Amino acid sequence: MPGAIVKSPFQYDLPSEAYHIRLLNNCRKHAEEDPEKYAFTNVDDESDKVTFAQVHDYAMGLSGWLTSNGFKKGNILYLSMANCWQFNVTMLGAWHAGLAVSAASPQFTHFEHNYQLKDLTAQLIVTDAATLPTVTKAAQGLNVKKVICIGGSSGTVDLMQIFKSESNQKAAKPAQINLKEDIILLPYSSGTTGSPKGVMISHLNYSSMLSSYVKKYDEEFIKRGYDSYMPAPLTIQFLPFYHAMGLFGMLFHFYNGTPQIIMAKFNLRKFLQTVVDEGIMTIMTVPAVLLQLVESGLMEEFDLSCVLVINVGSAPLAQSIISQIKQKLPDVTIAQGFGMTEFSVAAHIATAESPIGSCGVLMPNTEMKVVKDDGTLCGPNEEGECWIRGPQVMLGYWRRPEQTAEAMDKEGFVRTGDIVHYDEKGNTFITDRIKELIKVNGKQVPPAELESVLYEHPLVLDACVIGIPDQKSGELPRAYVVRKSNNLTEKEINDFVNG
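Structure tokens predicted for AMP-dependent synthetase/ligase domain-containing protein (499 residues):
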């Protein structure tokens, strides 16, 4: 069969409202329906909770403060903190004032923070007490005007005081947003190759992704006899909010009015105990956690029959893990997704009808071409590289037109670096990867970044880093080093890189 561009079976009208406006409108609606309904609570501290009404007011507090302190539409807010409800409020407040947000791992070293801050030219940092020392060290010598910290600290502004200030809340004025051109998010990704780059996600990209999810889930629930999607009554979030999957999942549940229990630090036993105690029906996770689950023996200890759906992303899930989970939970739906930061979050999501091992069909309004080595398009069951086009696809890489041109063709398709094939119904199967990135626990590790660190050692003449398979982490990096002197030991190299 001749090759062709594969199109999603579902379509929707592109949104006319900015993403954060849709979230804030729903936030007000949930608050009006039940003023005491909580949006987030902390698995380690039940008193640390916030209602939908408070989320709205606190977001307005930050928005008003930003405007009053001279921050303008298009400025960049650098956000690095462990999972907490303040993460959500900070984003909403920043977006309302017209700022773009670039999130980063609180586990970053000062070297990694410095790289992203410098590349962004960010003027504002919002963080927590644990991350503050590292991020302030990273910001030294850069043009950072303000540092805001949860609880406040020497030389910082207290985030909670900003949230709760009535004068700040009254000063909030919504920025005028151009959906197609204005940036909402600047997450960092290495794409298919090279060092981390800022991914320019527009308001239209992210709002389209929300519409796509709403359409997809509505269609799935209508198939089962419901009028529309029925949001989960409660969920638990442990995937990091700075990551595309964890962030969008948290915001999607927030949009739907689902109360969320937040885990700042993952603990498998506590996670399972919470799932059982609260009767949580849908969980979002990654393959490394499911491997830990099946190897731990805890599926024998906990009755997880309340779980109906397990959504999995960030890396392919081994068939052996699926089989072991299905032995204990035969009725559970394990739905794998496929996406990249460059697609806002997703291009495919599997459903109960998807073949095992498939990442499902394309998200609504999304197109795919599978390309052979000679540039021709693949037909069903032919392997080639996956390219994606859709309204959720990034504008390009921040201040990197050459890398943007390498990643995106003239038709607007973005290369994934993944080898796939699809069946006659459009179900897509990922079989290999041609990109050089190493995926460690679902996170991108560019070999070039590790090689550049190795080159800084005075006794390293040359170096090459590759990924090697690892059952627990998916892949791990291995370095091959040419020494200038035989006195250089493996331990010295490891200590140098770790430092």
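The chain has a mean pLDDT of 93.
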